Amino acid sequence: MRWGRLALWAVIVGGIVFGLLGGEYSTFDWWKLKRSVSAGEGAITQLRLEIDSLQKEAEALETDPAAQERVAREAFGMLRPGEILYRVEK
Q: Which pTM was predicted?
């Protein structure tokens, strides 16, 4: 009777250990993959937001004269007629 219980517990413990560590993908590998998928989905969400923002900016640069003027002034240092540029050096 005692050997039967010991064998039963050995099978149960062996099954639990195999379930956690054994097989092609262990439970720990599955948890790691699940966390990786969650992190990837978060990154995808952030990238979609960035793409949306960049598309709106590109559309504004194509159609909005105020946005075009802002970029021309910031990127190329362009001035309107009659304006004077003052540069302050540190």
A: 0.56
